[in-house]
Write a structure and sequence with these properties.
Elements lengths: L27 E4 L4 H9 L16 H8 L6 E4 L6 H6 L2 H20 L3 E7 L21 H13 L5 E6 L1 E2 L7 E3 L3 E2 L2 E2 H13 L4 E5 L4 E2 H8 L6 E3 L17 H8 L12
Parallel strand pairs: 1-2, 2-3, 3-4, 4-9, 5-8, 6-11
Antiparallel strand pairs: 7-10
Helix pairs in contact: 1-6, 4-5
The structure holds NADP nicotinamide-adenine-dinucleotide phosphate.
The site of NADP nicotinamide-adenine-dinucleotide phosphate (NAP) has 27 residues, from helix 1, helix 4, strand 3 and strand 5.
Length: about 270
Amino acid sequence: MSGANESDPAPEPRAPSRRTEGAGGARILFTGGSGLLGSAFRKIRPEYDYPSETVFDVTDYRGMEAYLRRGAYTTIFHAAAFTSPPKIDADPLQALEVNVIGTANVVRLAMAHRLKLIYVSTDYVFRGDRGRYREEDELHPVNKYAWSKLGGECAVRLSDDSLILRTTFGPAPFPYPKAFVDQWTSRESVDVIAGLMARLIDRNARGVVHVGGERKTVYEYATSLDPARPIGELSIKDAGFAAPADTSLDCALMKKILLAPDGGIRKEERT
Ligand SMILES: NC(=O)c1ccc[n+]([C@@H]2O[C@H](COP(=O)([O-])OP(=O)(O)OC[C@H]3O[C@@H](n4cnc5c(N)ncnc54)[C@H](OP(=O)(O)O)[C@@H]3O)[C@@H](O)[C@H]2O)c1
């Protein structure tokens, strides 16, 4: 890993690139493009640029800066992260490197190049004991993964031109045979969440916005993805690890932004 140095040379002017052209002329570089969320975005926003970790490693500031010179960007969408809570609990160093220091590198890069920064955070930054969390509610991460994501949030807050999207999503169909009947969430499939995020980008949202659907149990979420498939019932009391009871998000601000007169939330997304 290499960090930025104050004696780094000033960035060179960048040539415009058509391949990153997005809605409204935004040119967006997306980190974590090979991941679950990145794969969903590639389907709906193929015009974004999705550099691999090999050429855009968030722990390598100089490498990222060199890559930026390839095209003119307006925005970095930062979804890259080390995302395995059990592995992070066992060995938090990689989360420190990628989620905290890596995100700080991306913030520094965005500020140095005057780029808007969009950061994907998690509903797990909340304690999870009451649910319906609003953007300004007290933060109390439930595990080391969530602490590392909150570390990223802290760095992103130093940029005035930023958007933090707190959310939860999963693949469809539900990947497990059983689901919690007593754990509450705002989770939606990754395709739905990517669609909502893309439209928040189009609306040029800033600050902190919660992105999700209606409050429901994980069991209700799982069965909603494929009603024909039987899913077994499970209690968080039998989970074998600390599972928060209710990290559901109040998504009123998201709806307000998407329902504003010159936009419009689609009927199927009204939750
Ligand atoms: N899944 C959820 O329910 C959920 C909920 C809330 C928030 N989030 C957040 O949403 C974002 C995307 O999640 P996801 O589920 O799509 O993650 P994912 O499937 O685990 O993908 C992680 C991505 O990060 C990349 N990456 C890891 N280390 C990197 C590095 N040093 N430099 C550059 N790229 C690196 C990976 O690249 P390689 O494949 O090459 O390693 C991969 O593309 C993350 O920030 C996550 O914390 C996820």
